[in-house]
Amino acid sequence: MGANLSAFFSGLTWSDRSNWSSGSSSLQSKPSLGDLPEGCVALVLGYLDPPEICKLARLNRAFRGASWADFVWESKLPYNYQILVTKVFGELPGDLGKREIYARLCRTNTFDGDTKKVWLHKSTGGVCLSIASKGLAITGIDDRRYWNHIPTEESRFFTAAYLQQIWWFEVDGEVEFPFPMGTYSLFFRLQLGRTSKRFGRRVCNTEHVHGWEIKPVQFQLWTSDGQHAASKCFLNETGKWNYYHVGDFVVDNNNSPTQIKFSMTQIDCTHTKGGLCLDSVVIYPSEFRERLKRF
């Protein structure tokens, strides 16, 4: 139903919309959308996705007023949005409407010492979370012979961990967060090679890239309720950020936080490996899994 309504309204000309908004003389004798009670309009908007609601709010006064109805936006917010608000913001003004709460949660919100970012997907309301490389436990990170933190505009955090060379490669992390009920996928965002700008063009230096084709990297995750997932993968594509899928986990309780531990290892010490950029770990609703794999 939402798709049909959206298709109908998107086909309206600006002349139609102007007539409905102003009540032109040619239409005064006939009922129009501008005559609909605001409450009825709000009921219709409840079937649409948030971007469609905001688009239709420009039609006329009735649609604009209906687009702010709390019950419309409460149906778009996660069931445990109040817990999310407390986790991310600490506290919000008590008179804040549900639409404004939704809008604030859709922004990229930083917490936990600027090492984590969380936001709602604007269309679906799904919770997405990203953990910076500085929020992970990386073996050898304090020794500049092995690792360096480098600035980059290609990261949400504007920094990434760059590995020059190491024998024992191990990255661990954990997060505890009140994810709403659903299935989630966890990824490492990685790139072989170090990118920079030269004369305004993106270039990738791959001189340190080696060792990843000999043995696969192992990824694992564990949850506080006993779930476990593991995968293996050779790293072989240079000059491009890729999302490496670790596994999925299910949240079946809206009222308590879920703790997730995860790791990425290649600890075969018969050879060194290097030239890897580690940006972040991301957790998305699993419905986006295939989309991320294409990037």
Automatic annotation (TrEMBL):
PANTHER family according to UniProt? F-BOX PROTEIN PP2-A12, F-BOX PROTEIN PP2-A15
Mark the transmembrane ranges: none
State the protein's name. Answer: F-box protein PP2-A12
Where do the F-box domain residues begin and end?
30-76
What broad taxonomic lineage does this protein's source fall under?
Eukaryota, Viridiplantae, Streptophyta, Embryophyta, Tracheophyta
Q: Which Pfam families match?
A: PP2 (PF14299)
Q: Mind telling me which InterPro entries this protein's record contains?
A: F-box-like_dom_sf, F-box_dom, PP2-like
Per the UniProt entry, what species is this protein from, by scientific name?
Morella rubra (Chinese bayberry)
